[in-house]
Each structure stands twice: as C-alpha cells, then as structure tokens.
Design goal:
Elements lengths: L1 H4 L5 E5 L3 H13 L3 E5 L2 H11 L3 E5 L7 H9 L9 E6 L3 H10 L3 E5 L3 H16 L9 E3 L2 E4 L4 E4 L2 E2 L4 H12 L5 E2 H9 L7 H15 L6 E4 L3 E4 L2
Parallel strand pairs: 1-2, 1-3, 3-4, 4-5
Antiparallel strand pairs: 6-7, 7-8, 8-9, 10-12, 11-12
Helix pairs in contact: 2-6, 3-4, 4-5, 7-8, 7-9
Length: 234
Amino acid sequence: MFISECRMRDGILVVDDEEDIRELIRYNLSKEGFGVFCAASGEEGLSMARELKPSLIVLDIMLPGVNGIDVCRELKVDAALRKTPIVMVSARGEEDDIVRALELGADDYVCKPFSPAVLIARIKSVIRRGQVEPVDVEAILTFEDLVVNPIRREVLVRGDAIDLTNTEFKLLHFLMRNPGVVYTRAQIVDGVHGDDYPVTDRSVDVQVVGLRKKMGEKGDLVETVRGVGYRFHG
C-alpha cells in the first residue's frame, strides 16, 4: 500500500503565501501519511529546504519577495537539494512561468484552483518516478498495438512497420519511455539530441506533426499540452 511507503518521516515542504492553500495541502497530505512542513515565502522556503532536506517540495510560483521560479533555480544549483522533486503550483494563465519552471528542472505542475485529490495523485506519481529503476533504453516498448524496438530502430502499428526519420524515432522513443510526463520543447531537444543542439521550438512542432501523420490513428497518443509541450498518453 502506498501510504505505508510514505511514512511520516517522508517530509514534504509546502511553500505558498496563501494560508488557506497551505492548510488545504497540509491537511490532505497529512491524511495520506506524509509529514508536512510549511513556508509562507520564497526566502523561508529556501531556508527550510536547506535545513530539513524534504523528500519533495510543493512550490507556488507567485510568492512575495523571492518568487517560485527563483526558488526553483536556487534549489537546482544546490548540490544537496538539486535532486529533490519539485511540484509547482500556479494560477491559470501563467504558461510562460510554467515552461520556465519545467526547464529549470521542476518535475510537474498543477494549476490553481486545483482538486486536492489531483494534487495528491501528482505528488505520488512524482515520488514513484523517483523510486523507479533507471529505464533500459534498449528495451522494446509496447502500448496497445504500438511497438517501438530501439535495437532495430523499428516502429510497428498493428504489425505494420512505419517509416520514421531518425529524429522522429528518437522523439517517439523519448516520450514513450516516460508515459504521462509532460516535456517542454527544450527538454525534448535535450533528450533527443543532447544539450545545446541548435534546434528551435518550431522544429520540434514540425517533427511532431510529421510523426503523428505517419503514426496514423495512433498519432493522438502524442499529446499537445497547450503552452507547455508534449507527452505520450500511455
């Protein structure tokens, strides 16, 4: 049972300047067996993160003083905290901030107003991803009647091979290895080609369009997350 895996010693730090939101998150996380610590500002959040070394941080973007984007940046350059998962919380419409947070290394985001059940599910999903063994990049991936074989560089839809470019294949393989995870275009470029590869956001969009077309009825499995990027709906 998941609750038994998340004992009270597994502390989660909630950083939000709205007291009612902090209490809502604290109450629901406590019910799930998590230990919860709260901070009302970016400065306080950074201080508590460095002192407590939490298992995960729920971080609001709009904070007084040091905002959530800057807090995320600080955490990701701190050797002791850079691997700590971060779930961003954002008011609707702040798509640029969400993209920036994901590019800085945040693991997920939830828009306000949110359902506590959805937030808890996303937190658990992030924690589970961190507990999973490293993915075997040579393993054959399957979803329904879609098969991706990285050794043979082959993609089958209902048993029929489809002809993908090398970049299209790498894009599908990258997304399919982590179903449900939203990636920004910059993260996709890094994951497919490596850091500093000279490809624009528009190029990623063009590759996705081509990939979907070749996948036919399975093209919808590569989902657009408006204002953020793409994910494989597996």
